[in-house]
């Protein structure tokens, strides 16, 4: 499995509050124990902190609530998609349908649905979702607390919800590095025509 997929699986495993030993995670993810430790460090750099319980019965525990999105289309949208030939001429139609998606978040405790209600964040989320689906590069205007606003070219690889706010995990072209961008700090999003290969990014990192 690619690194990004493994990170998402690791979050899914840990978010139920259960303790997983290093051996269990290594076996589930089919990677070495050293790689599991590297994943833990990567997640903590992204603000997802995993507790380590020491001792012979120790392991990793995630005590934060991390919700990963489940994206669903309405019945009418699905019918339209089925009717399309999915050729080049249909791309704009498909993009318009994707822009209408409703993001459902499945709460791990009570399975109640939470919606993205902020119009600006939803618009940003929908555009990034489109870029994710078609592996397209994105130009964003992003506000940084230290340096103010700047324009960045990113390759979006995953959208996730952390502490009830949306983030996008991306490869940042200028820095040649993986970064996490807070959606509320993105003031402008432009999905570019240029595509990228997510497998190359996953292998690289």
Q: How does this structure look, described?
A:
The chain is an alpha+beta fold and 205 residues long. It folds into two domains: 3-63, Winged helix-like DNA-binding domain superfamily/Winged helix DNA-binding domain (Arc Repressor Mutant, subunit A); 67-204, no CATH class. Helices cover 36% and strands 34% of the residues. It has helices at 3-14, 22-29, 33-45, 75-83, 91-98, 119-134, 198-204; strands spanning 50-53, 59-62, 66-67, 69-72, 102-106, 113-115, 136-144, 148-162, 165-172, 177-182, 186-195. Strands 3, 7, 8, 9, 10 and 11 form a six-stranded antiparallel sheet that branches. Strands 4-5-6 form a three-stranded antiparallel sheet, with no helix packed on it. The chain has a two-stranded antiparallel ribbon with strand order 1-2. A hairpin with a 4-residue loop joins β9 (165-172) and β10. It is globular and about 60 Å long. It starts with a helix and ends with a helix.
Describe this structure in a few short sentences.
The protein has helices at residues 3-14, 22-29, 33-45, 75-83, 91-98, 119-134, 198-204; strands at 50-53, 59-62, 66-67, 69-72, 102-106, 113-115, 136-144, 148-162, 165-172, 177-182, 186-195. The protein has 205 residues and is of the alpha+beta class.
């Amino acid at each position: 499995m690619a690194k990004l997929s493994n990170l998402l699986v690791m979050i899914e495993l840990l978010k139920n509050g259960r303790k997983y030993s290093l051996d269990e995670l290594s076996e589930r993810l089919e990677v070495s124990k050293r790689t599991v430790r590297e994943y833990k460090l990567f997640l903590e750099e992204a603000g997802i902190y995993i507790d380590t319980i020491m001792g012979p019965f120790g392991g990793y525990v995630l005590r934060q609530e991390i919700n990963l999105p489940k994206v669903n289309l309405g019945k009418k949208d699905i019918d339209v998609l089925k009717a399309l030939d999915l050729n080049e001429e249909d791309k704009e139609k498909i993009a318009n349908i994707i822009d209408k998606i409703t993001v459902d978040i499945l709460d791990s405790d009570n399975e109640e649905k939470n919606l993205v209600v902020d119009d600006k964040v939803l618009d940003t989320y929908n555009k990034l979702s489109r870029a994710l689906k078609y592996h397209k590069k994105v130009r964003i205007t992003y506000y940084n607390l230290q340096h103010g606003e700047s324009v960045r070219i990113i390759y979006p690889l995953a959208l996730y919800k952390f502490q009830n706010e949306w983030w996008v995990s991306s490869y940042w072209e200028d820095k040649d590095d993986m970064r996490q961008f807070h959606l509320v700090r993105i003031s402008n999003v432009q999905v570019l025509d240029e595509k990228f290969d997510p497998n190359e990014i996953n292998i690289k990192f």
